[in-house]
């Protein structure tokens, strides 16, 4: 299984970065590259550094890191919406999208450094990471101190039921676009045509504003704000290595945690807030569990989140669905409406390792078991563990390497997985030297 994970990453490597999937996602995606770098760091740290530096090579002058960096060698019609739709380029001349994704990159940079300490790499990427955060503070911060998103794609959880209500206000207009995703994946596993019509309408309106003005979808999302806060936590550590003052980052991390508690916590779970209406959007999204990663989160709130995870998400079973199975909107196979995703499990695992190791262990074993049963799929049915979406998905392979490096394989073996003894030494707790030239 570990050798197969490296096979996936090698097959999806494009010279300086890794595509999420050769057929379905043939370009570079922002938060995918962060998760992929975390896995690369465990076996080929040079590739991890290249992954992040390649992405930040397409950073805009205002500091935003676009959610897609387009490969000019890929035919124009291979992915929609492509460069012709977005009509924008980074200062480097590279065609990109104009929206963003959760800023998990500082965490990825720090974990890459831990795998193979490289202060020169941190000094190189630190100002770019700071510029990314400054863009969010300048362009997306609300008076309440929270960071907003302007498109469901910016959340990373595209068609989450949490977005059903705010998307009702989006006027979809038929534009004659051709979806490419359902040429590769069963339509029942993907967002609907109506979803896409709304996505395209929102993206077009934002594009036509010069990528400045939010439209009908203007949301403060707990996962995105958690990623922002965790980035500040990581930047404080990076600053220390670079000989800089970590205190501004520590202060910012504490401030975003306090703002989330005040404005997004409903006493049971963290929720999204509609900036246009000022109201919380009550849903059962597992995004509301990710604030467990925030070190400044009060202990009593963390305890309540864990109780919610056990009660409403069946966390004790070791598999975390993206939406509560008890909710009427839950769908076990359709994209972000219920399936289990390795990256979301990994984020919650990060928040549990120190707070509740007794729950973190089974969640790590659950991630390994999903892959052992179904391979490196994009997402998994949380009940049957059957894989869905595309095959050979890069962040599933990458994050498995990270989980094994830190957690080991004993739990998988106990669950019935057959793992050869020679594989146990392939990924070590620190890193394995590069086996493929970067």
UniProtKB/TrEMBL annotation:
Residues 25-396 form the Mannosylglycerate hydrolase MGH1-like glycoside hydrolase domain. Keywords: Glycosidase, Hydrolase. The keyword Iron does not apply. GO terms for biological process: oligosaccharide metabolic process; protein N-linked glycosylation. GO terms for molecular function: Glc3Man9GlcNAc2 oligosaccharide glucosidase activity. Belongs to the glycosyl hydrolase 63 family. PANTHER family: MANNOSYL-OLIGOSACCHARIDE GLUCOSIDASE (PTHR10412:SF11). This is Mannosylglycerate hydrolase MGH1-like glycoside hydrolase domain-containing protein.
């Amino acid at each position: 299984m570990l050798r197969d994970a490296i096979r996936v990453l090698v097959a999806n490597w494009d010279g300086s970065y890794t595509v999420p999937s050769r057929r379905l996602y043939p370009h570079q995606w922002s938060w995918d590259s962060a998760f992929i770098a975390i896995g690369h760091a465990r076996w080929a740290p040079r590739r991890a550094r290249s992954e992040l530096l390649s992405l930040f090579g397409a950073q805009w002058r205002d500091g935003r890191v676009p959610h897609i960096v387009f490969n000019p060698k890929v035919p124009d019609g291979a992915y929609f919406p492509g460069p012709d739709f977005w009509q924008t380029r980074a200062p480097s001349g590279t065609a990109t999208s104009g929206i963003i994704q959760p800023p998990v990159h500082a965490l990825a940079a720090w974990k890459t450094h831990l795998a193979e300490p490289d202060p020169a790499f941190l000094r190189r990427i630190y100002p770019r990471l700071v510029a990314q955060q400054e863009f969010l503070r300048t362009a997306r911060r609300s008076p309440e101190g929270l960071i907003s998103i302007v498109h469901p794609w910016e959340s990373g959880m595209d068609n989450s039921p949490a977005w059903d209500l705010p998307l009702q206000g989006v006027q979809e207009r038929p534009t004659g676009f051709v979806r490419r995703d359902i040429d590769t994946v069963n339509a029942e596993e993907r967002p609907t045509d109506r979803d896409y019509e709304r996505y395209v309408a929102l993206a077009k309106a934002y594009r036509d504003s010069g990528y400045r003005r939010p439209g009908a979808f203007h949301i403060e999302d707990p996962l995105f704000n958690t990623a922002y806060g965790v980035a500040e936590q990581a930047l404080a550590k990076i600053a220390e290595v670079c000989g800089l003052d970590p205190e501004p980052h520590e202060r910012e991390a504490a401030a975003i945690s306090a703002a989330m508690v005040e404005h997004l916590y409903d006493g049971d779970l963290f929720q999204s807030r509609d900036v246009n209406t000022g109201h919380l959007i009550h849903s059962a999204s597992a995004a509301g569990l990710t604030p467990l990663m925030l070190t400044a989160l009060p202990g009593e709130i963390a305890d309540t989140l864990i109780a919610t995870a056990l009660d409403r998400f069946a966390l004790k079973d070791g598999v975390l669905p993206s939406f509560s199975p008890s909710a009427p909107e839950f769908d076990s196979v359709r994209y972000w409406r219920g399936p289990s995703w390795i990256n979301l499990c990994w984020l919650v695992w990060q928040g549990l390792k120190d707070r509740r190791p007794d729950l973190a262990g089974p969640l790590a074993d659950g991630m390994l078991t999903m892959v052992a049963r179904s391979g490196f799929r994009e997402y998994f049915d949380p009940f049957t563990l059957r894989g869905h979406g595309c095959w050979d998905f890069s962040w599933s392979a990458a994050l498995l390497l990270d989980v094994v490096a830190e957690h080991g394989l004993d739990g998988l073996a106990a669950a019935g997985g057959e793992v050869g003894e020679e594989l146990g030494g392939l990924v070590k707790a620190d890193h394995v030297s590069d086996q493929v030239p970067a």
